[in-house]
Amino acid sequence: MKPARPEQIHDTHEHDYIALCVSNLKKYKRMKEYLILACLVVPYKCAGQALTSQYFQNLPAYSPAFTGANNFLDIRTAFRKQWTGFERSPQTAFISAYGAILPNHNPYKKTSRETGDREVYENNKLGVGGYVFQHDQSPLSQSEAMFNLAVHVCVSEHSYLALGTSSGISNSRIDMDEITVLDPNDPTYQSYLRNGSSNTFFNFNGSLGLYSPHYFMSYGMMQLINALISGNEQVNNERVSVRHNVLAGFRLYAGEKIELLSNIFYRFDKNRPDFVDVGLRLRYNGNLAAGIAYRSEDTYIMMLGFTVSDLMILGYSYEFLMSDSNAFNHSSHEIVLGVRLFNDFNSILIW
Questions:
Q1: Secondary structure (3-state) at 58
Q2: Contacts of 154 (CB under 8 A, 6+ apart)
Q3: Over residues 253-273, mean pLDDT
Q4: Nearest-angstrom CA–CA distance, 334 and 96
Q5: CA–CA separation, 172 vs 182, rounded Å?
Q6: Among 221, 223, 247, 298, which has the highest number of CB atoms less than 10 A from its own CB?
Q7: Inter-residue contact 96 to 134 (CB < 8 Å)
Q8: Domain 44-341 belongs to what architecture?
């Protein structure tokens, strides 16, 4: 069985290559060897940003321009479990917090002055926050901690143009005690043993966004800087390509109590296949939401959302793969808990 090259593996489903090896277990009877081969082929270059089913619950992680778009302290935490029923299957967790620093206490109260023929609105704001991701796919472990900063300029009564950045560190580590190889003299394996199997990087991302309570759109360039801080340089000598994120969505009202919310995510870079996620949710009375999404590689997502109280929201998603080659359970479960603090003006969620 010939391994795929790193650039052929879609990082959104970075585990699917290993899944293919597992699906051929009865044929090859070498599950552990193929698992290790996959880890050695794509150990760190697939260690990009983890993508959850409900990514819109942590949108500033994928477009830092949206940091502070909601005018309250927005805290989210999530847990995602993949390959249900498979021992030691991949799992992801994150926690995030974003808020806005307002120059005055009403985000829509504006003063203006004439500058030529242009009216300038002076209710701009600053968004700050950050997030921590942890992804485990034994024997591979990945983590990321980022700080976000965004400047929001009011361009109309309810619309903002925002420029944001995120910077921080990421780490990828292989637990060599958990693996066995067919050839202990393999050069890559020996390099890990001699020089270590933990690598730490400095990352820098940027994006530009436009949004209001009725729509959002953004373009981001992720991994503008991806510099090795410490670790094994011998297996990290390839330059990581810039990843381009395009996000958009809108909100439509069908009566006083029914909202229709859409979200679109398109991601591309030169080393990976393009990724697309298109979703649609229906929300009733601001409390109960249900939706469906389709993403690349025949993946479907069913979603439910609840507003537990003025402070707390809860989201659940079930993700499954529709494919003839699905030899075992690819389904994933994800739960997101959100807390909204200091929402003095009862601001609605942008997304």
A1: helix
A2: 110, 121, 123, 124, 160
A3: 92
A4: 16
A5: 23
A6: 247
A7: no
A8: Beta Barrel (2.40)
